[in-house]
Amino acid sequence: MGEAAPQSAPREIAIRDAIREAMSEEMRRDDRVFLMGEEVGSYNGAYKCSRGMLDEFGAKRVVDTPIAENGFTGAGIGAAMAGLRPIIEFMTFNFSLIAIDQILNTAAKARLMSAGQLQCPIVFRGAGGAAFQLGAQHANSFDHFYAYTPGLVVVAPATPYDMKGLLKSSIRNDNPVVFFESELTYSMKGVVPEEEYLVPIGVADVKREGTDITLISWGRSVFLTLEVAAELESQGISAEVIDLRTLRPLDRDAVLRSVAKTHRALVIQEQHQVASYGAWLSHLITSEIFDELDAPVGLISSLEIPMPYSKPLEAIVLPSKERCIAEAMKILEGAR
Amino acid sequence: MDQELLSDLYRRMSRIRRFEEEAARLYTERKIGGFLHLYIGQEAVAVGASSVLEAKDFFITAYRCHGHYLARGGTSRAGMAELMGKDTGCSRGRGGSMHFYDAALNFMGGWGIVGAHLPVAAGVAFAQKYRDSDAVTICFLGDGAINIGCFHEGMSLAALWNLPVIFVIENNYFAMGTPLSKTCPTEDLSIRALGYPMARASVDGHDVFAVRSTIHTAAKRAREQRMPTLIEAKTYRYRGHSMADPAKYRTEADVEEWKQRDPIRVLGEKLDSLGFSETRQRIDREIEDEINDAVQFAENSPFPSADSVAEYVYT
């Protein structure tokens, strides 16, 4: 009898590497896939998400662009409509606003206006949301601008596993996909298997099971939400955490199923509240399963203030664990 | 001169002219909705260009797109049905006047945001180069599009990456109601090519043969050298910016001056003078029949069914 083979620990990699693996694997699989954006090539990516890709795939498929978001976004869309499958990297989604006409008015509408004659299989990816004191112009959460628009798929994963699996699914998707990452989590590590896998678009994930209240979140805010759930547990409250992972199409069943079970819901988002994605979720829950609710749906958001630079002020504007706990308690008390 | 070529060019330009005259009539009868931007007067540009390009080449244009669609080989029936929002239209009633498409003809639209389609054209050309295809992409725009950021970004990328694309500014001297003199400090719009840099030409857009030869040279440059070209075609639209525009910003005499050199009239007279007036008259009759048939076809076609409303949003 030989000794048992040593059980190797599951592989853990950082999100930036999960993203690179997803792009590289898909580029090896399909030569129509290419990466285009500012600094993606010789600089290896502003956040090093494309490290080494220029060496492997060459300048034909890892295309450095001038600072011209409207130009290279439109060019990506044209290439997609002509049969390629571009990945467009926005250094951050703050700069996507310069190209938002191309995304909302060209990519999202090509299929409908041409009655399906044109397809636009393209991924727009990059960092969204706040990071370390970037000030007002570089800390925006624009999830809802894109999630508002029919014709787009909008994906906002949190964990390294979901980031890789969903990016691969996004690259294989035949619709234009807007894919949100976060500057704050690129270095975060998590279990990502060596073997290939996909995470399906449009399927939410129960990141933590619970019975007393449903906490709903997506993107980086999922990590805050998990902290909130852990804190609630220490106070004897069992919170379920739903990670939407995809904003459009929304996994309505997962949301409604969980809230029907716990009878209470709190949405935690980094967006401002007015006309936000969370406001729509609140409407959805309230209109679909009003009778199941023991309290109004809660919504924690960034304050209605452009992001200030100073660290303590930034912390006040962003959703905090304390604000989330207080709101959860209010919801739970309302139920009594 | 080759009678067959003359006849063909005459037929193609006449088709566009008569198609749009009927469209204008149907618009006043409210059988066509939305905006209707007519190409009448500019026919020599689309027809001259398409007559020297190949089936594998790609066309993309802005919202004044009927002429390019028909010149490329789109049918009067599918075009007229689209204007009426019918299911038999070239975009199955989803696009309307500004958004004609025909993927089988590599006709990529029909886009409504001024200048936004220039980077898209660069991308279509990028895809040809990526695939080692020698197909050329031609992109039509108006003089009103030359001051928007996308014009610069599209041109810039095309020159930087040596893309096989031809940008054709159809200079009809008005950005909606604003004269060119108020929007651009130069008269030769092709000089905008200098800074990128890219090859350039300025051509009489009322002269279908001049357009042909200019596009031919640019297409050869794109196909063989993978180099872009910026062309200005000086032309004129006889109607307002859209049907909503009575065009009071210019005089009848201004329009009449251009009409004296009307490309369809000039070509018709040439056919007559060469002894082909019977041919010309036959073409006129055939076009008349074709347009009448297209209107009948469109009127008799069904609207898209209500239960199809959510189609074509996602695959």
Q: Could you describe the 3D structure shown?
A:
The complex is a heterodimer of chains A (336) and B (315). Chain A is an alpha/beta fold and 336 residues long. Chain A has eleven helices and 14 strands. Chain A has a seven-stranded mixed beta sheet with strand order 3-2-4-5-7-6-12, sandwiched between helices. In chain A, strands 9-11-10-13-14 form a five-stranded mixed beta sheet, with helices on both faces. The mean pLDDT of chain A is 96. In chain B, helix 1 (3-28) packs across helix 2, helix 1 packs parallel to helix 11 and helix 2 runs parallel beside helix 3 (66-72). In chain B, the strands form two sheets. Chain B has a six-stranded parallel beta sheet, with helices on both faces. In chain B, strands 5-6 form a two-stranded antiparallel sheet. Chain B starts with a helix and ends in a 15-residue tail after the last helix. Chain B has 315 residues and is of the alpha/beta class. Chain B has helices at residues 3-28, 43-50, 66-72, 76-83, 117-130, 149-160, 180-183, 208-225, 252-259, 263-273, 277-300; strands at residues 58-61, 107-110, 137-142, 165-171, 174-175, 178-179, 199-204, 229-234. Chain A binds chain B through residues 34, 60, 65-66, 68, 70-84, 101-102, 105-106, 110-119, 150-151, 153, 174-175, and chain B through 58, 60, 91-95, 99, 101-103, 108-113, 116-128, 130-131, 149-150, 153-154, 156-157, 160, 311-315.
